[in-house]
Design goal:
The chain is built from eleven helices and no strands. It has 201 residues and is mostly helical. It folds into two domains: 3-18 and 128-195, Endonuclease Iii, domain 2; 24-122, Orthogonal Bundle (Endonuclease III, domain 1). Helix 2 (24-33) packs across helix 3 (39-52), helix 2 runs antiparallel to helix 8 and helix 5 (64-71) crosses helix 6. The longest helix has 18 residues, at 77-94. The protein starts with a helix and ends in a 23-residue tail after the last helix.
Length: 201
């Protein structure tokens, strides 16, 4: 087992049970809401939103003002309200959330991270959503050497065995929140510290 596989095996053992599946539509809307905000704000806003508008049809026909009021906690409520309503309308036109990357990327305001989150958490497909945790920690651990999330995604897919892809995001998010923080990482309790080239830094 090489170093990368050993790192991933240890992290999956510790955090792999955090993986979840949800309705692809809920994953799509929640991920759009999560952009540039805190996880707890996203949770509150999405719970309230789906309680009021549980289906794409109901959100597609909602008033923007009402959507804005429900989601204002996540920031940028006007832009996000317009975006999620337009996405809901497109989903209705398509007869459901698409399960192909290129079709997801054609939805308004949907980039690679959001599309890959839908594939992983909505459809259980092998994909690698790259957020700030994944990008930062993959570089810190020496799994990749990249400067952008897009480069990180490509290098992970080239270097990491496919069986780890579906768990990669959730494992690194949990690891980043728990131990491998941006500042003052808890190297003394890190399960992969002996494999980390950045430990001494």
């Amino acid at each position: 087992m090489d170093r990368v596989e050993e790192i991933l095996s240890k992290l999956v053992e510790r955090y792999g049970d955090s993986y979840f599946r949800d309705d692809p539509y809920r994953v799509l809307i929640t991920t759009i809401l999560s952009q540039r905000t805190r996880d707890e704000n996203t949770r509150k806003a999405s719970q309230q939103l789906f309680k009021k508008f549980p289906t794409p049809e109901s959100l597609a026909n909602a008033e923007l003002d009402e959507i804005e009021q429900i989601i204002k906690i996540v920031g940028f409520p006007k832009q996000k309200a317009e975006r999620i309503r337009e996405v809901a309308r497109k989903v209705c036109e398509m007869g459901g959330v698409p399960s192909q990357l290129d079709e997801l990327l054609n939805l308004p305001g949907v980039g690679r991270k959001t599309a890959n989150c839908v594939l992983v958490y909505g459809f259980g497909q092998n994909a690698v959503p790259v957020d700030t945790h994944v990008h930062r920690i993959s570089n810190r651990l020496g799994i990749v050497s990249t400067s952008t999330p897009e480069q990180t995604e490509r290098e992970i897919m080239e270097r990491v065995p496919k069986e780890f892809w579906v768990l990669y995001n959730i494992v690194f998010v949990r690891f980043g929140q728990d131990i491998c923080r941006p500042l003052n990482p808890r190297c003394d309790v890190c399960p992969v510290s002996e494999l980390c080239p950045s430990k001494e830094e």
